[in-house]
Amino acid sequence: MMNTSIAIYPGSFDPVTNGHLDLIERAQKIFGHLVVAVLRNVDKQPLFNVTERVEMLREVTKSWPGVEVDVFEGLLVDYARRRQAGVILRGIRAISDYEYELQMAMMNRKLEPRLETVFMLPGETYSYLSARLVREIAMLGGPLTGLVPPQVEARLRAKTA
Ligand code: ADP
Fold first, then answer.
1. Residue pLDDT, tens place only, 56-68
2. Does residue 48's CB lie within 6 angstroms of at least one atom of ligand 1?
């Protein structure tokens, strides 16, 4: 019922960065099916709406047949059960990510013991990269080359012009 070859990679992806993509590329080699799941978060003030975030993710992951982009709301464990996924994928950049991720993984394990959280490390070039920093650099008109795919850079420029 919960299939460990199906993994869910949840996040805000506001917007997708080269760090997310690095993780997706590594993970799609391991899992038969990888669902990149955009969290529809009602109380956050996003830069891109969910539709825009999904469009960008689909564009930049289209060459990987095992990768699907979806939207979810509510409890992640409920969504995972619905998708019959046995794995939650999360990225760890630095030690600073660890505490929060540990708390989430342990709580998800309590809510659904059959679900395993798997952590992966991005290439070191991306270990300092976050969507929040990308948004800040874009707002301030700084260079985004190498941080996000070209399509995302164009959308950021249009949004912050
Ligand atoms: P961000 O933290 O950049 O706003 P998300 O909330 O979309 O990103 O994060 C979704 C998942 O992707 C989290 O597990 C996060 O740790 C991971 N992640 C984000 N950026 C990177 C990166 N540069 N390298 C590896 N993992 C990352």
1. 999 999 999 999 9
2. no
